[in-house]
User: Which sequence fits this backbone?
């Protein structure tokens, strides 16, 4: 049972700014992937048509979107991730708090059932109104979804204001899950569209780095990225190329790292596990939470080690399963690692800029 999408109360809307959820190709795909993971997807497939310039398609096998939530999917100030402003500071296991001027009481049987689903559902948190942004920025936003209660799926489209186009509804065969197709990203903002086309190589490089992080750190989900090179000629077939794929058998951090970045990259890394409870307790007092504060993962061998460190200094971090960028952690990690680097001590050697490669997962209560 998944929580329903509901409009956020006006008093909370005024305190939440979510207008910049989608700023480039990578952020557009990231928001759709996060939605898939929140829906419990075990498999997520991404297709980029003409490098993502023409359209983006994200297919998952998650729980699907309930029929009552579909009209609200791309509506402004509507989400299944929170009910009030204070929910930004709680996880799914806590009771939804009422914000100023709001009540958390249920208005009926459906609301009671949804409150149970909302409280129990783990999510990657409120990130902004991604589908509303995508409908605003794109030529069209089309969704096909099916839940386990339905025999057949339903396809529908949204206009640029985020409203469901009623005459776009069609029945469509598909398994349980959701497909979101974004056509003509940034076509509503011609300057942004031109900029995206000019910098498509850089944007795709950022997208690939982001997807590599998800593929490595989200061990319970399989990922597949496919490029579809569209042709202007009707006689020529579209060329399809798989850029990234993880298998069901890759269920450990080491296996995923080798699958995504290669065995040679993995060979330059060492396993680490650090329990952070004592450091946290010294700073904030003893915590009663059973969840340990810890860091686990892989990091480059020390510069003084006889085993060579990874030649590439790629770094990936996650907090409670969500891939994130942690520049402060990256700097501290580099400072400590360079203490053991004799090259860094040689002035003008460039060693001061060296940093370790790593794949680190932080667990916080």
Assistant:
């Amino acid at each position: 049972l998944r929580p329903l999408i509901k409009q956020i109360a006006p008093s909370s809307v005024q305190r939440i700014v979510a207008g910049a959820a989608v700023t480039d190709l990578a952020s557009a795909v990231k928001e759709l992937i996060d939605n898939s993971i929140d829906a419990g997807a075990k498999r997520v497939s991404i297709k980029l048509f003409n490098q993502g310039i023409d359209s983006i398609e994200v297919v998952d096998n998650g729980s699907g979107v309930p029929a009552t939530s579909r009209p609200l999917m791309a509506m402004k100030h509507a989400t299944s991730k929170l009910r009030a402003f204070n929910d930004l500071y709680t996880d799914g296991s806590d009771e939804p708090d009422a914000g100023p001027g709001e009540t958390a009481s249920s208005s009926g049987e459906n609301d009671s059932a949804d409150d149970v689903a909302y409280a129990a559902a783990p999510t990657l948190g409120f990130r902004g109104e991604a589908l509303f942004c995508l409908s605003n920025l794109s030529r069209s936003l089309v969704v096909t979804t099916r839940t386990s209660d339905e025999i057949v799926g339903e396809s529908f489209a949204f206009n640029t204001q985020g409203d469901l186009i009623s005459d776009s509804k069609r029945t469509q065969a598909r398994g349980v899950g959701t497909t979101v197709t974004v056509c003509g990203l940034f076509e509503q903002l011609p300057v942004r569209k031109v900029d995206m086309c000019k910098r498509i190589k850089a944007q795709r490089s950022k997208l690939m780095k982001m997807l590599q992080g998800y593929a490595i750190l989200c061990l319970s989900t399989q990922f597949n990225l496919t490029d579809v090179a569209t042709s202007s000629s009707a006689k020529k077939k579209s060329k399809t190329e798989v850029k990234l794929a993880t298998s069901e058998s890759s269920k450990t951090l080491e296996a995923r790292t080798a699958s995504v970045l290669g065995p040679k990259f993995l060979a330059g890394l060492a396993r680490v596990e650090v329990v952070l409870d004592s450091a946290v307790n010294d700073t904030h007092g003893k915590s009663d939470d059973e969840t340990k504060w810890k860091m686990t993962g892989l990091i480059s061998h020390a510069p003084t080690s006889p085993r060579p460190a990874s030649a590439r200094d790629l770094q990936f971090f996650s907090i409670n399963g969500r891939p994130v960028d942690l520049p402060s952690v990256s700097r501290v990690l580099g400072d400590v690692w360079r203490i053991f680097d004799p090259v860094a001590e040689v002035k003008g050697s460039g060693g001061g800029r060296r940093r370790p490669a790593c794949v680190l997962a932080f667990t916080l209560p």
About this structure: The two ends are 24 Å apart (CA to CA). The first strand starts at residue 6 and ends at 7. The mean pLDDT is 80.
